[in-house]
Each structure stands twice: as structure tokens, then as C-alpha cells.
Amino acid sequence: MPQKPLYSLTAFWLIVVLYVLLFMNGKEWLKQDALRHDMTSYYAYLPAVFIEDDITLNSDSARKNMYYWWSVESPQRPGRIIRMSMGVSYLHLPFFLMAHATAKPLGHATDGANAHYFFFIILGSMFYGLAGLWLLRKLLLMYHSDKVTAITLVLIAAGTNLLYYTLSEGPMSHVYNFFLIICLLYLTIKWHQKPAIGNTVLLGLVMGTITLARPLNVLLALLPVLYNVHSKDSLLQKLQLVKTRWYLVLLVCACAFLALLPQLLYWKYMSGKWMFYTYGEEGFFFTKSQVLNGLFSYRKGWWLYTPVMALATAGLFVIKKYSKEWALGLWVMLPIFVWCVYSWWSWWYGGSFGSRPMIDIYGAMALPLASLFTWALQRKWTGATFLVLGAFFVYLNGFQTWQYKKSLIHWDSMSKAVYWKVFLSKKWPDDYGDLLKHPDYEKAIKGQKEY
Q1: Cys staple from 149: which of 8, 27, 249, 348, with CB 3.0 to 4.6 Å?
Q2: pTM (2 decimals)?
Q3: Domain count, the chain
Q4: 349: Cβ–Cβ under 8 A, 6 or more apart, which residues?
């Protein structure tokens, strides 16, 4: 009788307890700005359709609501176009409907903009974060031991800024993308094991929703495309699979398009164009990608503020030993993804904790992270070293999350001097304000240096 994977199961339920306790203690839904900035735009489609009955946001009541201001003027008709695409709202939908159905019976206004609605939306963020971790556990157990899976789950859940962006700013897009991309990985395996209609439809719908939730994440399609390509023979086998199952490949594309279709129809109705760019002057500078700043800077360096991901990246050098099916896809996808992410005009992504766009791919990065620990635990000294490092990184992430919530870590103006003055400290430096380096957003949006 096979032994139950108790270590990873225990780790998962401890994470659930941690998340629920932090959720209840934080009470983010009671804050007046529980949904703010980008969050309001991801959410806006639902009250616009189900409450205002006005997708143009042109009614008097819509103009008074929070989500109205995070939108752009329509060139086609009176009203405004919601800035963000609607992928995240797909995942908000069941929790919004629960909130809407219970608001009036429980004595709350049915305006979509009060603590009752915020509670359900933020609850949904935690649900998708935990669901992603549950599915990630199942995926990792296909390749790694129960103990390594447990370690990896704890590092991803408690040792990265996924923790903050699940429980403090959950209605941002990142935890939803984290969940969707893990679904993509899992469905990729299932499709290659059994390329049936059901798996095909789900794979396409998930890929389309990933693209709609954050368009740059279309790059994650490289993972299923390159899955299990690790030699000349495996490449030929992959091409043969596509040749014999071409109709399923077309069905994947059709289902992905189906997920995108509501957005295309919305843009066409509101702008007269099938594709409408809502970001105005904001854009990418691909020839000026700030990769080094994105990885190492004191402002938002990915590897500085989330050193667990430096370990995960190092794991790419041993991943072929333990999960070779994913090696080529990750080696191809990650550099392209990093280059594109840090080509955005505001490579630090405004006010945020760490490098938030990278959270989306933490499910994929869990594969090389687990590979690194599988390799390290084969020797006592490397195993002990990496376990101590991992434990310290979990502590550091928890402490810096607290610092960020208290503004000891500044939202967009950290410098080397400030970082080391507040490192593992609860005290405010007397010269804190003088040591900050404030970026010039007007210069950055033109592709110029922001200092």
C-alpha cells in the first residue's frame, strides 16, 4: 500500500491555517480603499454589468463609483472604457455573485462598493491562492518526494511576496494568474497523457483567460508548446503528436479565442475597434529593458526582495535531472518573460512590494526550486545549507512584509542606504525621508532615466 504524502499534506494545511489567520486578523475588506487603483479596474466589469446595467459607465451612479476613475474616455460613444482587460473579473464572478445575492438579506447596500462585497472579493483571492497551492502540490508530487514538495510549498506560500499579494492586495491580478498558470501546467501534463476533448477544452479556456488576465502572460504558452521536448527524438514525437492530433490543437486555439471573445466584443462596442489600447502614453521600451534593475535593484529587485526566486532560478541548472519535460520550456520562457516584464516604462511597477509581476510565474518556478532541493538533500551539508537559507528567507519575507505594510519599506523609492538602515529593524531612521530616491515618472514614461 503506497504511503500517503503526509509531509506535503501537513504543510498545505498549515499554510491554510496561516492564511486564514492572517486574513481574519488583517480585515482588509473593512478599509475604505480595500479596492484601489488597478484593483478597481479588474473588478469594474461586474458592477457595471450586474448593478449599473451600463457597460459604458455613463450613468450618474457609475460616475460616482470608485471604478469609474480607473478608466479611459471612449472615442466611439458617451462613456468610458475600463482600463484593464476582463480576465480577472471571470474569476471574481462567483464571489461577486455570492456577495450580491447576500447583500440585501444581510442589510447591506447592493452597490458593489462596500465592505460586504470587498469581503467576498478578498476571500476569493485567498481561495485562488490556496487552490493554486493545492494543485501545485499535486503537480510537484509527480516529480519529487513528499518532503521536497512540502519544503517547496512552504517557500512559495510563505517565503515570497505571493503572501502579501494574496492577503493584503489580493484583488490585484497576481494571485489569479498564479492559480491560472498552475492550472495550465497541470492541464498540459494531463493533455499529453490523454489528449481528449475535455482536457483540450480546459487547456484552451485557461490559456485564453491567462492572456486576458494579463496579456504579457501569453508567453506562458511556450511551456505547453515545448513540454517534453528534451532531445531530437522527443521533438520528433511532439511533432508527430501535433500532426495526428491537429484537430485538438485547433480546438485549443478555438477555446482560447472563445475566452477572449467577450473582451473583443466589448472593445468593438466601446471603441469601434476589435483591439483597443487603454494605456495611452504608457508602453514598453524593449531596447532599454531594465533587467539588471529588475533583478537586483534596491527599489524592487526580484532576487533582492524575493531571494527564494534566486534559488528557484539556480534550480534551472539541475531541473533536467528531475523534471526534464519542463526544462526547455522554462529555459526559453524565463529570459523572454524577464526581458519583457522589465521593458515596461515603469519597470518597478509603481507602488508595490517587491517585483509583483513575477508572482504570476511562481507556480512554474516551483519546478526548478523543487529540483534544487531534491539535488541539495542528497548531501548532508548542501541539504542543511539550503534548508537554513530557506528558513531565513521565509523569516525575511514575513518581516519585510510587515515593514512594507508599515511603510518602513517604501512603495517606490527605496535606496541602498534606506534598505540597509531598515534591514531587519523596526525603527524609523531619523533621515529616512532624505535617503529615499523618488523616481521621476514623467521621464520614465518617455523612456528616459527616472532619476
Answers
A1: 8
A2: 0.97
A3: 1
A4: 300, 355, 356, 357
